[in-house]
Amino acid sequence: LELQRLKEAKQAVLEALAANPDSVSAFSLLTRIEYKLQDFKACRRSAESVLARDPQNVQALLFLALASFYDPQFQPPSRVRWYQLETGDPRLKHAEALVRSAIAIDPALPNSWNILGRLQFSAGQLKKALQSIDHALALGVPDAETLLLRSQILRKLGNHSLADDALRVSLSLSPENSIAHAEAARIAFVQQDLTAAAEHASEAVRLD
């Protein structure tokens, strides 16, 4: 049902663009829809259309970064590929540069730091990811997803106590999150709290 609604929304936006082909707001909405549809190639194209008309558009830069990083078929510009040996993935360097461009435009936007942290986490850069996520949390109201990611990073860094603290707050904000319960089960198991581990594992299965 959600997929069908997104496809219908995309068609409506395309019709609006046919009538007004320079509408930044329409291209921005199209970018969001295509990202949700996981049509990363189309998402990049729409984000670039936004930036061609509004080069300082932070959200377009962020969507362009995400669509570039998560699309395994994407090939960054040749000048970025020189970083492949350094990062292990030239897409990361390209996406990170786009996010840092967004941060340079508006350094107080939590979402930019959040996305930077998620990219760094995906690349295994745990300490850098923690710094970025902590920066995002300091700038905005703590949300369940960001706190969950902080917990995952801390667990991988071996700090189970702080990971548990972050996860408890995350679950208080979003108690129906199956991924958070699965994470809680992992931490409880490491802390040898087998009762809590079983409870969270059961809840994760129920909610999934």
Question: Helix amount, in percent?
Answer: over 70%
Alpha-carbon distance between the termini? Answer: 18 Å
H/E series? HHHHHHHHHHHHH
Low-confidence stretches: 80-87
Can you offer a commentary on this structure?
- This protein is mainly alpha-helical.
- Helix content is 78%, strand content 0%.
- The protein is built from 13 helices and no strands.
- Helix 7 (90-105) runs antiparallel to helix 8 (110-122) and helix 8 (110-122) runs antiparallel to helix 9 (126-139).
- The radius of gyration is 19 Å and the shape is globular.
- The two termini are 18 Å apart.
Record the SSE blueprint.
Elements: H1 2-19, H2 24-36, H3 40-53, H4 58-70, H5 78-81, H6 84-87, H7 90-105, H8 110-122, H9 126-139, H10 144-156, H11 160-173, H12 178-190, H13 194-207
In short:
With 208 residues, the chain is mainly alpha-helical. It has 13 helices and no strands.
Name a few traits of the molecule.
0% strand, 208 residues, globular, 13 helices, mainly alpha, 78% helix
